[in-house]
Amino acid sequence: MLSRRTFLAAGGLALFSARDLFASAVHVPYFTTNPFTLGAASGDPSHDGAVIWTRLAPDPLNGGGVEPLPFAVRWEVADDEAMTRIVQRGTAVAEPALAHSVHVEVSGLRPDRWYWYRFDASGFMTPPARLRTLPLDNAAANRLRFVFASCQYWESGYYTAFRHMAEEDVDLVFHLGDYIYEGPARQGVVRPHIGGQLLTLDDYRGRYTQYKLDPNLQAAHRIAPWIVTWDDHEVANNYAADTSMRNDPRDQFLLRRAAAYQAYYEHMPLRRTSQPHGPDAQMYRSFTFGSLASFFVLDTRQYRSPQACGNGVKPVCDGIFDPNTTMMGSVQERWLLDGITSSRRKWNVIPQQVMMAPVDLQPGEGVVLSTDQWSGYDVARTRLLRFFDLEPGHNPVVLSGDIHNNWVNDLHVNFLDPRSPVVGTELVGTSITSGGDGSDMPDGMRPVLAENPFVKFHNDQRGYVRCIVTPQELRADFRVVPYVQREGAPIGTRESFVVEEGRPGAQRAGSS
Ligand code: FE
Ligand code: CA
């Protein structure tokens, strides 16, 4: 067993302060193969730092291959890619209780600059990767580039889009959820999952391990800090707070949710403030990019009411208009509205999970909605849109994922009246792989789009969305690959839109 050979509790103890040694017996690892098989990542940047993440896993698909003891991992942050001008270094402890993951909250760096970091254990090192700090709150910022992505079903295809993302010149990467999928291995897929339906902590850990072994995903993590949030498949399809689609007993489902949340934390570059406590975890949080933009990252899974009228694509029913239902929970909702009200930034971007615009999926007579989206929570959505209307000038832009295709939607304050004011803009990004190759415009979509005049764009290929933000406009380039079921697809910009400052709603842009 590799795990037998990996442990050597001797030598090198001078690495630690006396306090560390008294606090716990931290061991210096000895590995005969690279323990950094899952790569490294940075995330949740601040003005003076960011989280840097890695995990020791020399034998990744056999539980990691590390003795269940705390091990030391060294890290360093440099001014240059060659890692010659080291500005900070330290030693972190990889604890077995967290699957030997390491989350270092680097601080004391200078604002608004790029740095490089790497980890080192037993002579093995991660390749230098980039992190950037954010501009100070009051600093003028004239340009921000970010990408957002979601939904990377392993079995549906290759992460070619991540390979191309790794070539983008961006400051931040947002991930809007479905980083893993919880389903069992299936036959006849591009590349099968390992194992069955995820239920236990070990199950979820194993799935993250499988996904994170992908070199294209690792490359995308190296380019910039990621700001992540989860959707449903990190736990179970279409769950709502403590309710699963299969109506598992509540206590049983919360144990599963706790396991899923912990494995997510263990594999993401998140701060300790997001570490789960049992089935609860603080995932909604905000970031500012100088005077230019605020980001309010939402969690629309943990606190929501159960979906109305039975979960799914359903004709409109009374439950959708139940005034007691919530999408964010009252605490998060208050936090969002207060945050936007007091934001003095030009743009207020809301990275979150599910589509906000009420797309009617039935051409002609009758209205059919997806009740897992904001459409199933009409009263909560209307509260937010009315707020946008009553508090103009904040330039709200909603980023969504979940449904594996691209959409650009104008957000009207009252969707029953298409002449009511547009109060915000929604950009729905397609999946990295989920849904397979797809096509530009599936059969049957044109009549749906004709039914929904607030939809400015639709496309059903895989990819991600690249945004360039200036004080004057937010530009979105819908980057798509023609296929994912084979490797090697090129990437292109299918369409670009701009949102002008002070003018909610998107307009088609010329090509860049
Ligand atoms: Fe998905
Ligand atoms: Ca209809």
Any key phrases for this structure?
512 residues, alpha+beta, Immunoglobulin-like, Purple Acid Phosphatase, chain A, domain 2, 14-stranded mixed sheet, five-stranded antiparallel sheet, 9 helices, 24 strands, 28% strand, globular, disordered N terminus, binds fe (iii) ion, binds calcium ion
**Total helical segments:** 9
The proportion of strand residues reads 25-35%
Largest sheet: 14 strands, mixed
What name does the CATH topology of the largest domain carry?
Answer: Purple Acid Phosphatase, chain A, domain 2
- For the termini, the CA-CA separation is 55 Å
The CATH class designation of the largest domain is Alpha Beta
Q: Please tell me how large the radius of gyration is.
A: 23 Å
What small molecules does this complex bind? fe (iii) ion, calcium ion
Any idea what the shape is? globular
Q: For this structure, what is the CATH homologous superfamily of the largest domain?
A: Alkaline phosphatase D (PhoD)
In round numbers, the mean pLDDT is 94
- Counted up, domains total 2
Helix content: 10-25%
CATH architect. name of the largest domain: 4-Layer Sandwich
How many DSSP-defined strands? 24
Low-confidence stretches: 1-16
By helix and strand content, what is the structural category? alpha+beta
